[in-house]
Amino acid sequence: MRVLGLISGTSHDGIDAAVVDFTDNGGAVRGELLAATSVPYSESLRARLVAALPPAQTTLSEVCELDTLIGQEFAEVAASIAAEVGGVDAVCSHGQTVYHWVDGAHALGTLQIGQPAWIAERVGAPVVSDIRIRDITAGGHGAPLVSFLDELLLRSRGGTAAALNLGGISNMTVVGAEGVVAYDIGPANALVDAVIVEYGLNPLGYDEDARIAQTGTVDDELLTALLADGYYALPAPKSTGKEHFHLGYVQEHVAGLGRDLPVADLVRTLTELTVRTVAHDVRAAGIEFLAVSGGGWRNPLLLDGLRAALPDTDVVLADELGAPADSKEAILLSLIGWCTMHGISAIVPGGTGAREPRILGTITPGTGPLVLPTPIAGIDTLTLTEAAIS
Question: Does position 318 have pLDDT exceeding 70, yes or no?
């Protein structure tokens, strides 16, 4: 079954897509990556989305319009990559997270928009969507859902291994003798991106190749204040987002210094914050092997900083697990879609905090009758390979 995965992450800069062809042989599942792409949002849509995100105030009419506009852009990306591979059997769309409701140690709700009916109409295949909320209703955080894929890829490595995603928020899945633990560590690119956009430092909205951060120095007073945030001391499982780590959060901490701070020093300090928080948790867990993915791997200060801070840990890219670092989350969505269509849970309870596994998402039929495959008991092993991608 060919499944197209679609996602826009917490950096809300565009749409990642991947088509994976899955085959099952008695629980031994093989996935071949047929195509992958990343398409930026149109400038006007991204501007409207950013303006509507917390802590900004918005209206239900704006949420409705964004739901349609994002759904339409997802649909165009889906139609293009589906045509590239000669069609797909199903789609799994994460959509765009606009709010993640956490109260203390519990997640109570989450909202992803990007109306899946537009995708179903454009592509003609059934669409799995709204995948996080089922985990939350079972007591989980709805995140990090990538722990399901990570556990399958890491379970045979031995020792203590982990997968780290450096998106807007950093999250990590740890697989060891005591089972699986996964959680959001804290901000990865979110705070740096917010500052870049606020000061108009790069029209791309991020610190490309850490060019700005590399001209600054770490402000120790600000870094100490940021590291004192109570979120870091919470036990796993836990989740967070831009409801907590946003531009206003940065501005409040800078104002607390009572002095001016060069913007390059601010960007450098926020970059170091990610290195410090991630390295602390990796050391605390005794992780020997760390596979990195997400846009942050392209930031040399992040990747080199982690390698320098973790001399006893083998820090590699997720490509070594068969999941290209730039496409891993879209591949996850393909896998979740395949699981849902086959009646398989895509939750690792230790990864999200859910009481027990659940089948994720809702299904929007395509243009024809909705015909589900014969259910499968589960996945024993997962092997990912990459086809020749032009």
Answer: yes
Give mean pLDDT, residues 113-142.
97
Lowest mean pLDDT of 125-129, 200-204, 273-277, name the range.
200-204
Query: Phi/psi of residue 61, each to 5°?
Result: -65, -40
- For residues 16 and 9, the answer to whether their CB atoms sit within 8 Å is yes
Q: How far apart are CA 295 and CA 327, in angstroms?
A: 10
Give the pLDDT confidence score for residue 390 in this predicted structure. 45
Share of the chain above pLDDT 70, in %: 99
State how far the Cα of 58 lies from the Cα of 51, in Å rounded to an integer.
Answer: 8
Q: Give the model's pLDDT for residue 174.
A: 97
Q: Which two tokens stand for residue 61?
A: 């009419």
Quote the pTM value.
Answer: 0.90
CA–CA gap between residue 114 and residue 86 (Å, rounded): 24
Backbone CA torsion sign across 275, 183, 35, 321 = positive
Peptide bond into 55 cis (omega under 30): yes
Task: Say how far apart CA 284 and CA 181 lie, in whole Å.
Answer: 13
Q: Of 170, 149, 174, whose CA–CA distance to 295 is shortest?
A: 170
Query: In a 10 Å sphere around its CB, with 0-12 CB exposed, 13-18 middle and 19+ buried, how is residue 311 labelled?
Result: exposed
Q: How far apart are CA 231 and CA 144, in angstroms?
A: 16
Question: What is the distance between the alpha carbons of residues 208 and 197, in angstroms, rounded to a whole number?
Answer: 12
Angle, in degrees to the nearest 10, between helices 220-227 and 263-284: 50
d(CA 81, CA 19): 8
Give the DSSP per-residue string, 228-295. T-GGGGSPSS----TTTSSHHHHHHHHHTTTS---HHHHHHHHHHHHHHHHHHHHHHTT-SEEEEESG
Q: What is the pLDDT of residue 177?
A: 86
User: Could you tell me which of 267, 255, 254, 265 has the C-alpha nearest to residue 195?
Assistant: 267
What does each C-alpha distance from 339 to 17, 18, 303, 344 come to in angstroms? 18, 16, 32, 5
Q: Are 140 and 352 in contact (CB under 8 A)?
A: yes
**Can you tell me the mean pLDDT for 320-324?**
92
Burial class of residue 353, CB neighbours in 10 A (0-12, 13-18, 19+): buried
Q: How far apart are CA 362 and CA 264, in angstroms?
A: 45
